Hints:
By secondary structure, this protein is α/β, with parallel strands linked by helices.
Amino acid sequence: MEHLTDIDIAQNTTLIHIKEIASKLKIEEDDLELYGKFKAKLPLDLIDEKEVAKNNLILVTAITPTPAGEGKTTVSIGLTEGLNKIGEQATVVLREPSLGPVFGIKGGAAGGGYSQVVPMEDINLHFTGDFNAVEKANNLLSALVDNNLQAAKNLNLDPRTIFWKRVIDMNDRSLRNITIGLGGTANGVPREDGFNITPASEVMAILCMASGFADLKKRLGDIFIGFTFDKKPVFARDLKAENAMAILLKDAIKPNLVQTLERNPAIIHGGPFANIAQGTNTILATKMGLSLSKYVVTEAGFGADLGAEKFLNIKCAASGLSPKAVVLVATIRALRHHGGAVKEAVNEPSTKFVAAGMANLEKHIENIRKFNIEPVVAINSFTNDTPEEFDLVVDACKKLGVEAVISDGWANGGNGTIELANAVKRIVEQGQSNFKPLYDWKSPVKEKIEIIAREIYGAVSVDYDKKAKLNLRRIDRLGFSDFAICMAKTQKSFSDNETLVGRPEDFVVTVREIEIAAGAGFIIPILGKMMRMPGLPAHPASENMSIDDDGVISGLS
């Protein structure tokens, strides 16, 4: 039988008009802002807080991932199909993909196999222009900063203290560190600068945290830029930037409606990375889904120690959202990896390595329960997995009082996730979850950091480099101690050392420095060296892509 790629499957699917998808959510056609036949933006006035409180939010997260990822998005979409198969109205709410990974190494983020959101080419590329709007708003602020340095009546901003960077949604290592303003007095003030990738922009984080348009503007004005020569803080509002930035985001703030392969609703909005930002879609998109559906399935990036922790301690604590269940995605491949299998052997069956790797899954289960939420383990199946390995995981989870089921959404769509859908429904209907955050935002900064490090990562203690200690004093002086904590850490390990796989013990994490995202409402302790502008691999995914004379794209996955 011919092997079909993700894009083959997507292109072989007949899409229905987006107004038909909207009708399933009882949205009037006049309320849609159409972007062609298969995409639409949704007005914020469709959000109904009473419905949000009444309906059921399901979070999909994962064990500590391998570089290829463990399929959270595929499971999220598949679970949504499965819930609809068993008669429950469900919508999937996801992040938007970044062009950097699409053209780099990881590929797209629209699901896979027979659990995809479509039109996948549009979603993985420019979509409705939200990333472009975030990029332009970010870079408008950069331009205003440098223009103020040039102006006769400036803010006395010290260019050596400017924290704000430009962004572009592409993997381009040559832009990490640059010098700008060269060429004489007419061309600006020379200073060091650099680019981050767009998902790392604080503007993206703000878009995902905003409760509405007024809140968006306020948060944009609260962006911390740097200091004056006499040590006074400077914010975006001091440059009168917030309104102009909000104008660029006036459409980007509205969630996007598309469809799954099985013609169920999908809302896609926002796209911060999870290792350096909060890693979840917008609060507005999640509330939009909950206003319109009995079940909303959403995902948080990377492993549960990153995306889920931030989803729960930041997004839910800020918005009042309360998940009724958590789906913890595991793959046999990842369990082999965490059990000690070398890279060349992770695709070879081994109950020995799977049994050893269960320690990683067990720690994630423990962590989810610390939030008073009951997890379900979804074993995302691959062709080289064996029944013996599946049985081992199911039995080990059963001893922990957790149900583990095989999720086969990649190969079979909703028919492959009916068992998972029923398991999730049982937890919801039994009322087993009563979410509570792990820390109080008003607690001291070091206490919040150490709670995450000890409780979620399993560290014995936290060390602070000299720069981090100076940053803590700055945070206290600026009055930002009540912010949430958004840890920047490797996704490859519970620890800050990516080589420590499985469930490391007796380790210390080191906070190198702490950044401030005053508009987003969190501070960012940086553990280890974090890359905010990725580079392309030796053979980027873009090399395998093509487009024919009729505009048909191939090689996009």
